[in-house]
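Hello,

Following up on my earlier ticket. Below are the five sequence lines again, exactly as submitted.
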Amino acid sequence: MEIILSIVLIFMIIGALFALHARDLLSALISCGIVGYGLVICFLLLKAPDLAIVQIVVETITLIIMIAVVLDSTRHELEKTAIEKKWKSLINSKALINVLITVIIGIVLLYSFRLAITHLNPFGEHILRMSEAYLYGGADKTGSANLVTGVLFDFRGYDTFGEATILFTAAIGVLTILRIKGRK
Amino acid sequence: MTLFILCFVLFLVGLYGVLTRKNIIKIFIGLSFMEFSTFLFLVLIGYIEGGIAPIISKNITNPVYVDPLPQAMVLTAIVISLAANAMLLAIAVKIYKKYGTFDIRKISNLKG
Amino acid sequence: MSWLITLFVILPMTAAFLIPVIGKLIKGFQKTITSVVFLFLTVLSLFFLFDGNTEVYSYKIGGWEPVNGVPIAIYFVIDGFTILMLSIINLIGFFSAFYAISYIRRFTAENNFYTLLCLMVGGMNGVVMTGDLFNLFVFLEIAVIASYALVAFGVEKNELEASFKYQVLGGIASLLILFGIGLIYWKTKTLNIADVSDILKYSNDRSFLLFTQIILIAGFGLKGAMIPFHAWLPDAHSSAPSPISAMLSGVLIKAIGIYCIIRLFFNMFIINHEISLVFIILGSLSMVLGVFLAVGQWDIKRLLAYHSISQMGYVIIGVGIGMMILANNGNKSVAALAITGGLFHLINHAVFKSLLFLNAGAIEYKTGTRNLKELGGLFAYMPVTYSTSLGASMAISGIPPFNGFFSKLLIILAAIKGRFYLVAFLAVVVSIITLASFMKFQKFSFFNKSSITEKPKIKEVPFPMCFSMIVLAILCLGLSLLIFPGVRETVLTPVVDILMNTTDYSSTIKDI
Amino acid sequence: MSNLYIIIFLPVVAGIILFAFPEKIKLLKGIIATIISAIAFLFSIKLFSVSPQLVNLDLFSSIFTEGTLPWEILQGANKFSSFNIDNLSKFITLTICFFGLVIVIYSVAYFYKNHTLKNYFPYFLITLGLSAGAVLTDNLLFFITFWGILGFTLYKLIKGYDEESSSTAKKTLIMIGSSDGIMILGIGIIWKVYGTFTISELNIPTTYPILTIAFLSLLIGSFTKAGAFPFHTWIPDYTRHAPVPSSAFLPASLDKLLGIYFLARICAHMFILNQWLTFLLIIIGVMTLIFAVMMALIQQNYKKLLGYNAVSQVGYMVLGLGLGTPLGIAGGLFHMINHAIYKSGLFLTAGSVEKRTGKVNLDDLGGLSKAMPVTFISALICGLAMSGVPPLNAFASKWIIYQGIIDFGKEPGVANQLWIIWLGLAVIGSALTVATFIKFISGIFLGRKKDHLNKVKEVNFLMWLPGIILAIVCIGIGVLASAIVVPEFIMPLTGKFEYIGIWNPSIVFVLILASILLGILIYLIGNIKNFRTEDSFIGGEKSQEETSFPVVEFYKTIRNFRLFSFIYDMAEKKWFDIYEISKKITLYFSHWLSKAHTGILTSYVFWIFAGLIIMMIILIT
Amino acid sequence: MKGMSSIVKKITQLLSGMIFLYGIYIITHGHLTPGGGFAGGAIIAASLIILVLAFGGDELTVVKRKEGSSVTESLAILAFLLFASFALIIGTNIFFHNYLPEGIIGNLVSAGVIPLYNILVGIEVAAALFTIILAFIIYKEEISK
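Thanks for your patience. The regenerated structure is below:
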C-alpha cells in the first residue's frame, strides 16, 4: 500500500515539476490536471471514494476554466518569450539565486517537518478520538449509511453550510470581478 | 513516514513554483500543488491500515473504517479551494485585459 | 443568550442570500436590509456586552452531546472576548454599510457589494464565535474570499493588482493554516479547541509543538499582516472602496488575524517562553517598520494602511508581554495590565482606523484624488470630515483625551513594569512618528492651499457619510472611558480573565 | 474643596458647552469666557489663602445615582483624583488664572471682528482649566493626561491655514506630543520602581541610571513645554505664525508657568539631583540663554524676536532651578512669574501693533510712539523690565539668580567650581537681551515714521488695558520686591533664604548695571556708522533705504561677524533644530524601507518564507 | 460564441442527459453510496457546461441563463439555511438539528434531513459552478465585441 502510494506520489511530483517548467502554458495546465488526477488515484487508494468523485469533477471544471482563460490570451505570447530567453535564462544569475534560496527554504522546512513528525502516529496507525463517535454509533444517530455524508451534513452540517456559502461567495465574487465597468 | 515526507515534498514543489515562476498561471499551478499536497496530507492522517471506506454495508461484521472526519474536512477544503481558484482565475483574466501580460514583474504598479 | 447567538451568523447570511434575489425587484432593498441587520446585531452584541453576565457559554450545533467526554459537535463558544469582537465587527460593519449608502452609488453592481459585505461580516462573526478549528478555517475563508472580491470591486488596474497579490498571499496563508490544523488533528485526533487544549496539556513533544505554532503564526500572521508577512496589506487596503478599507483595516485583520492568534495561543496551546518572545519581536518589528514605511507615503490610504500594521504591532506587543509574563510565572497583575492594554488598543484601533479610512473616502469622494501633494485647504469646505479626521488622527497618535492615548499608556506602563525597556522606548518613538505622519496628513489635506481648493464645487459629503464619521468620532472620545475601572470591569476584565486563566477555557467548555 | 471644582472643571465644562454655540455670536462667547475666567481668578485668590493640604476630590459622582454606569466611571476616576494644594501649586494656579483673565480681556477685543480663528474661546477656557488641573493634581497619570490635552489645545490655537502656519502647527504638536510620550516613559519607570503615581509621596535619589533616565525624560517634558534648548524650536515659529493672544497666552505665559512649575517640581520635590545633573541643568540654562538671545538679535520679524527672547529668558529659570539652592530656585520661580508678566505684555503690545498696521517686520515699522502712546508706554515698561532695569520686577529676580550663582560657588562640586563662568555668561545674556529690547522698541516705536503708517491710531480701550495692567504689575512687583513679594510669595515656595536687600549697593547691583551698559554699548557699536534717524540726502536723492533703519544695519553687523555668521548660517539651515534632524533621519529610513517594497509578488512570498524559516532555525533546530 | 460541429453537438446531447441523470443519482443517494451534494452538483454543472460549450449560444440567452442560475443558487442556499434554522423556530432551539425521523439505515428515504440538504447543496453547487463558467463566457463575449 505504502509503496504504491509512494510511486503515485513520485509520479505526481515529477508531473508537478514538469508543469512548472513547461514552456507552453497549455501543456503546463494539462500536466497540472494530470497531477490532480493522480490525487484522485491516491484518494481511491486511501479509501476515500467521496473525495475521489469530488476531486475528479472539480479538477475537470477547474481545467476547463483554466484552459478557457489561457487558450486565446497568453499562450502564444509566452511561447515567444520563452524561446527567446531559452538560453539567457540558463545563465541568469538572479533566477539562479532565487532557485538557490528556494532550495534552502525547502531544505529547512523539510528538516523541521521531519523533526516535528517523529513522535506522531506513523502512517496507517491512526487512533480515533473525535470520530469514534461518528464511526461507531454515528449511523444510528444520523441514519445515513455513508458516514462521510453523515459527518458532513449532520455532525458538521454547519461546516457544510459554510462551504456552500463560500461557493456562493465565489460566484458573487466572480460576477463582481468580471464586470466590464466598475464605476458609473 | 516516507509518504508524509513525499507529500511535503509535493508541497515544497508547489512552493518552488510560487517562488521562482514569473507567470501568473504558473504561480496558480504552484498554489494548486500546495493545495493537493495539503489535501493528501489530511487524508493520509486519517488512513487506518486495513480499514475500509466509511460506508456501512450489512455484509461485513466488525468493520474497521478509515477516519471519515479528515475526508469530510478535505471535501470541504476542495470546494473552498475551487472557490478560491475561480476567484483567482477571474482576477487573472481581468489582469490580462488591463496589463496585457501574465508576467508578474510587469504587474507592479503598487509599490513603496 | 441561548439561541439568539446563532443570529450572528444566520442574519447576515440570510441578508446576503436575499439580496441577489429581492434586490433586483425592490430598489434600495440591499441598503436597507444590510443596515438594519447590522444595526440589530450591534444592539444585540452590545446588550450581551453590558448585561453583566460574564459566564462562558457554549452552544452545541446540532445538539450533539459529548460522547465519553469528547465533544463531537461544533461548538459556539461565547465568552467575553467573543462578545467584544462581535460588538466591534458589527458596529464597524454597520457604520461602513451606512456610509456606503452614498459612497457606493458611484459604482456599478451595488447588490453584489452589499452581498459580499454581509458575507464578510457573517464570516467574521462565525470565526470569532466558533470553538472548532476546522470551522474557524471555513468561516475565515468566507470572510477572506468576500474580501478578495471587495478589494477588486473597482475593477481598475490597481484594484486588480492588489486583489491578485492579496489572493496569492492569502491563499498561502490559508494553506498554512489548513496544514497546521491537519498537524493538530494528527496529534490530538480532535478539532474542538477545548479538547485539543486538554490533550496538548500533557504533551511535551517540543519540536512538533513549535513547528505547528510557527506554521500557525505564519498563517494567521499573514491574515493579520504582521511584518514580515504584511506585504499584501498596503496594496489591498488602499485599493478597496473606502468603507471596505475601513472594514479590512478596522476589523478583518483583527477578527481573522489577531483574534485567532490570541485565542489559539492563549487558550489552545500551552503558553511558553519562546513563542511569546516571537510575538514580542514580531510585534516590535511591525510597530517600528510599519510606521517608518507609513511616514514617507503620499497616498492617504496607503499611509493609513501602513499605520494599521504599526498599530497592530502595539496590540501584539501588549498581548505578547502578557503572555511572556504568564509563561515565566511573573507578576500576574502586570500581565493583566499588558493584555488589557493590548485589547483596549485593539478596540480603539478598530474605531479610529475605520474612521480615518472613511475620512479618506470622503476626501476621495469629493476631490477625486488621494494624493496628499494634490490636496489641500479642505478644512473650510469639508468641516465634518476635517474635525472627525482630526479627532481620529489625535487618537491614533496617542494625544489625550482621545482613546488611543490611554491604551498606549497602558501598554507602555506594562512594558516598563515587565522590564521590557527597549519595547517601551520603541513604543514611544513609534507613537511620536505616528503623530508626525498624521500631522502631515492633516496639514497636506486640510490646510496648505492648493489648486483643488479653487474649485468651488467641493462641499461636505452627504448625510450617511457624515453620520458615520461623526458617530465614530464621538466613539473615539467616548472609548477613553474604558480606562476607568467602572466600565473596564464590564468590558475588558472578562476578556482579560479568560486570557489570563489560560487552561480554564478548556475545562469550562468541556464541563458545560 | 469647591474651589478646585470651580478653578479646574468650570472652565473646562464651560469650554465644552461653548463649542455648541455658533461662531456668529463670538462676542457673547468672549464675554462668557471673560466672566468664567474672572470667577476662576477670584476662586484662585480664595484658594491661595487655604493652608497646604492634600485633597481627594469626589468627581461629580453624586450627580448620578449609585450603581449606574456613569457613577461607576466616576468612582473609578476618583481613585486617581488626588490634588495637592501646596504653596507652589496654589501660587502657580493664582498666576495662571491671573494671566487667563488679562489675556481673555484682550482677546475679546482682538477677535471681535477677526474671523480667522474658530473656537478660540472654548479652547481658551479648556486650556485654562486644564493648566490649573495639571498644576494642582497630585497624580502623575492625571498630570500627563492634562498635560497632553494642553498640547492639543495649543495646536488648535494656531490658526494655521496657509502653508507656513500649518507647518508651524504641525511642528508644535509633534514636538509637544513627543515630549509627552517621553514623559510617559519616565512616569512608567517611577511606577516600576516605587509603585506609586502620587507626586507628593516621591523623593527619588538619582543614584541609579534608571532613575536618572526617569528624571531626564521628565526633564525633556518640562523643557519642551517651557522651551529650553534644544527643545525650544517650536516657540519662535509659534509666536511668528499664531495669533498674538494665543502667543501671549501659551508660549509666553502659560507654558512657561507649567514647564517651569514642573521643572521645579521634579528638581526640588520629586528627585534629589546629583551633581552631574545639576551641571547638566546649568549648562542647558546657559546655552539656552545665550543661543536664543543671539538668534533673537538677528530677527526681522518682531513676533519671532519676542519668541526667541522668551526662549532665552527660560535659560535664567533653568539656571536658577538648576542651582538647586533655595536662592536659585526662588530666583528661577520669581523670574518665571516676572517673565510671564512682561512677555505677555510685550506680546499684547505687539498684537496691537500688528492689528493696527498689519505689518510684522521691523523694517516696515517705525515711529509709532506718538500714534500709539499707551501701547508704547506699556511696551517700554515691559521691555525695560525684560532688560532688568531697576526698579522693575525682572531686576529683582535676575538679581536673586546672580546672588544664587555666587552663593552656589561656595559649595563643593564640579559645577560649583565654575560659578564665575556661569555668572559671566548670565551677564552677557542679560546684555544681549538689552540689545534686543532696544531693537524691538526702536524698530517699532522710535525712529522715523513711515508714510504708510500715517493712519495708524491707538487701539481701543480693551486692547490697551491688559498691556498697561501688566506694565503696572511689572512696576509694582519691582518696587515691592524686597518688602512684600519675595518674603510673602516666593519664600513660602522654597523656604527661608538669606538675600541681600535690593537697594543695598553690592556687587550684584553693579553687575546688573554693567550688563545694561554693555547692552547699550553693543547696540551702539553695531550702529555707529549710520546711527541717524533723519533722512539723509545723497546726491539730491532721498536715500531712505540705506540710512534710516538702524535696526537692519545693526542686525547685519552682528550677522556678518565671521564666527557668528557661520553659526547663524548653520542655524538658518536648521542644523540645530532637533525637529529637522529627526525628520531627516526618519525620512531616510522610510525611503530606504519603501524601496524594498518593489511591488513584485515573488519577493513578498520570499519574505514570508524567510520569516518562517528564520523562526524555525532559531526555535526548532 | 459559436457552437462546435454537429457531431459534437449530437454526442453532447446524448451524453449530457446521461451525465445529468448520473448527477441526480449521486445526489439522491448521497447518504447511501459515495458522493453527495457536492459531487453530484458538480457533475450536473459539468453536464450543463458541456452543453453550453458544444452549442454555444448568443450572448442574450447566456445572460438569461446566468441570471437564472444565480437566482437558483441564492434560493437553494437560502432554503438550506432555512432548513437548518427551522429547528430554532419550531422550538428545539438547536441550530442544524436533524428533526426528521431517521428511518432505516440503507433505505433511500432515511437519515432525516440529510437527503434534503444533499439536494439543496447539489442545486446550489451546480448553479454556482454554472454561474461561474457563464460569467467567464459572457466576459469573453463582451471583451471580444
